[in-house]
Amino acid sequence: GHKMSKRQVLGNLMMMVVAVNEPPASAISWAIYLLAPHPQAQERARAEALAVDDDAVGRADMGMPFLTAVIEETMRLYPVVPILLRDTLKADQIGGCPIAAGSFMIVPVYAMHRSPMHWHDPDRFNPERFLTNKASRRAFLPFSTGARSCIGKTFAMIEMQTVLSEFLSRFRFSATPGKAPTPQTVMSLRPKGGVWIDAERL
After folding, report:
1. What is the distance between the alpha carbons of residues 94 and 96, in angstroms, rounded to a whole number?
2. Helices marked H in the chain
3. Nearest-CA neighbor of 128 among 53, 36, 65, 182?
């Protein structure tokens, strides 16, 4: 490949720092918000977290399939990047509609993730869908896809698994009445004003 300049290296490093910290923090906030009114799902994820060896390094291969499904379902309902912007390189068509080369395209990730065309009962929090073949992976783009997919997606998943499992190991969460957060896009889809949750130390 081509050698990068110092400015390009710095730019890529800065992008990595921003991309693998701010969006995962938003996703973890949404995950706790979604788990709070679902005690059975929360206890199941907690059981996996508590079963992890404290001396283990990383959480990607620690046998936490349900907790991982919780994160994926969270990113389906509240994708950290709700839209993707792309330029077409060549002429094509989508659903019979012609797309000219050089067209500016907006991919509505948030809408795709909640479309009944791709998901059964799309507005319901149901991590189980990611443990079966019922999840529509082709319509699941939390990290984009293809050549322009997120370069930090593996690190981000490990970070979210680690932090969420630590929270669940230490606290039990319940919903705060009348405090449903409003989604707001500021770099990522974050809860406006934060998430209000009652936390009980275990």
Report:
1. 5
2. 6-19, 22-35, 39-50, 65-77, 109-113, 153-170
3. 65
* Cβ-based neighbour number of residue 186 at 10 Å: 9
Q: What is the DSSP letter of 129?
A: G
Residue position matching structure tokens 């969420």: 164
The pair of three-digit structure tokens given for residue 184, joined into one six-digit string: 């707001």
Where does residue 144 fall: left (phi above 0), alpha (psi -120 to 50 degrees), or beta otherwise? left
Distance CA(189)–CA(110), nearest Å, equals 10
Residue type, 202: L
Rounded CA separation 134/169 (Å): 29
- Residue 47 is predicted with a pLDDT of 95
pTM listed for this prediction: 0.86
pLDDT digits (tens, 9 = 90+) for 45-74: 999 999 886 655 555 456 799 999 999 999
Looking at beta carbons, which pairs linking 181-189 to residues 24 or more positions away fall under 8 Å?
A: 181/33, 183/78, 183/82, 185/82, 187/18, 187/22, 187/23, 188/22, 188/23, 188/26, 188/80, 188/81, 189/26, 189/78, 189/79, 189/80, 189/81, 189/82, 189/110
Reading phi first (left if > 0) and then psi (alpha if -120 to 50, else beta), residue 193 is in: left
- Report how far residue 58's alpha carbon sits from residue 161's, in angstroms, rounded to the nearest whole number: 9
